Amino acid sequence: MRLPALLENRRARWGRALGEPTVLPLMIGGGILAYFLFPEDLGLLTRILTMALYILSLDLVLGYAGIATLGHAALFGAGAYAAGIMAVHFVQDPLLLLLIGTVAGGLVALITGALILHAHGLTLLMLTIAVAQLLQSLANKWRELTGGSDGLSGIDPSPVLGLFRFDLYGRTSYLFALVVLIVAYAIARRIVRSPFGLACRGVKEDPLRIAALGGNPRRYLMVMYTVSGAFAGLAGALTTVTTGIVGLDSLGFTLSAEAVVMLVLGGTGRLYGAVIGTVAFMTIHHILAATDPFHWMLFIGLFLIGIVLFAPGGITALSEKLFQRLAGRGI
After folding, report:
1. Could you give phi then psi for residue 241, rounded to 5 degrees?
2. Per-residue pLDDT tens for 158-188?
3. CB of 62 closer than 8 Å to CB of 222
4. How far is CA 228 from CA 46, 105, 225, 279, in A?
5. pLDDT tens digits, residue range 26-75?
6. Which of 96, 103, 59 minimizes the C-alpha distance to 79?
7. Residue 5 above 60 pLDDT?
8. Are 305 and 255 in contact (CB under 8 A)?
């Protein structure tokens, strides 16, 4: 076999090794391993899992459909509050609460998407921020239902499947969040690989060509935005179930901005990039904040600047380049 063909085969093997088929087994194995290695940090790990699901929902619209948003927390918060309100007044079944949050996030995305997707560029960004601010203001004013600035508490989900009660150590919460994330990731991967997902990628790259081929670019974006809202609502409901409280920060601008940072850190247009970016950001955030409570934001900023300068495609793109170089050297 000639040398160029041999190197190409090596690159192909590295690509398959780093490809999507390996992600789910790694997530399952890593999640189970973390459960036994860090039994004292299950609360933090559960938070990472729920945020990873939220960042994954953002990747659907930003990475695969090209919809820039700084108000994605509106969809997350809608699911969180819907699940919390239902848990306080009506039902406590955690699976049903997840369904309620998913529907709520999808409905808010459907309603608001009909407005904001008429715009482009900075106007689109401003509209997404405005939607999140409106919902946050509504949640703050409607104290009787949402608890206002004090937050919504008194959420006590029933045992999962009637068997596994949520305990103070966070064991059930962690395993529940891990299973939900894995199932949601598998569904999202199926969506982006479907003809619909490929069409959304086409709209992101060249909407005029998609329209010339008979497609409706705005309809594709609308559907993907609604699907993303459902995933964000699911993440919000999962946070409500595992923490037992909902606050105004679930609709805040900070949550939307941090989501974009985590996604860019991991790499857009790759679902596993959302997971990697979330784990990297929140782990570094936790370590630095514990090490230096007064200057940790400075180190976070320097770290992000370094990623943007030396790995503009995110951690996943940098890893792929490194493995390709190793493959090119015959390693």
Report:
1. -65, -40
2. 999 888 898 888 899 999 999 999 999 999 9
3. no
4. 21, 8, 5, 20
5. 999 999 999 999 999 999 999 999 999 999 999 999 999 999 999 999 99
6. 103
7. no
8. no
Tokens of 135: 């919902």
Q: For residue 265, which of 231, 302, 316 has the smallest C-alpha distance?
A: 316
Centroid of chain to Cα 43: 18
CA distances from 242 to 50, 129, 157, 175, 309 (A): 9, 27, 9, 10, 37
CA distance 130 to 109: 14
3-state class of 72 per DSSP? coil
Q: Whole-angstrom Cα distance, residue 152 to residue 48?
A: 21
Q: What angle do CA 75, 26, 329 make, to 5 degrees?
A: 115
d(CA 134, CA 240): 21
Residue 246: name the closest of 83, 117, 7 by CA: 83
- Give CA–CA dist 154/85, Å, rounded: 10
Instruction: Tell me the residue type at 121.
Output: G
C-alpha–C-alpha distance, residues 162 and 93, integer Å: 9
- Amino acid at site 199: A
Q: How far is CA 85 from CA 32, 154, 238, 254, 305, in A?
A: 32, 10, 14, 23, 40
Q: Given CA atoms 22, 23, 24, 29 in this order, what sign does their dihedral have? A: positive
Candidates 135, 156, 137; CA nearest to 74 is 135
| Overall residue count recorded for the chain in this entry | 331
* Distance separating alpha carbons of residues 158 and 94, to the nearest angstrom: 7
Please tell me the pTM assigned to this model: 0.90
Distances from the Cα of 17 to the Cα of 11, 33, 294, angstroms: 10, 21, 41
- Residues contacting 291, CB < 8 A, separation 6+: none
**Cα 258 to Cα 76: distance, rounded to the nearest angstrom:** 13
**Beta bridge pairs of residue 152:** 246
